[in-house]
Amino acid sequence: MQNQMVMFEEEQRQIDEICEGLHRDANAQAILCIDKNGQAIASAGEVDSLDITSLSSLTAGNVAATGGIASLLAEKEFSGQFHEGEKTNVHISIVSSRIILVVLFDERSSLGLVRLRVKRATANLNKILEALLAKTEDSSTSSVLAEITDDDIDNLFND
Fold this sequence. Notes:
Blueprint: H1 9-25, E1 30-35, E2 40-45, H2 52-72, E3 80-84, E4 89-95, E5 99-105, H3 111-139, H4 150-157
Antiparallel strand pairs: 1-2, 1-5, 3-4, 4-5
């Protein structure tokens, strides 16, 4: 099982920038970056009309189900998926076996362009995730939660 990933402000900003860049460079409608539990990490583009919470949860469920299919076929995982709709297409890729990158696009873009731009964005996200995991491991010994004492908890709940 993988360690729980903690997001720091600097890495969050970098992930936001990658999503913004991918939105622009792929000529996409929207970009979502979510964790495998279905929690949104970042988004870019035309997301105001989207139910990001539901879309994130359903996408994570889809990736989990596809992981089950991969397992039945003796594959580690399927790192990418593509769904073609009448108006909106969805490209899903797994980054570092930790996060899911979702690109929503229409006729203004193409699958080839999206795949090309996702490849570069994935490489950049991998670097950020590696740095984030190293930082998380370094700070795990000095965790904020480790500094909380029973007295602190009692003081918090006592009036």
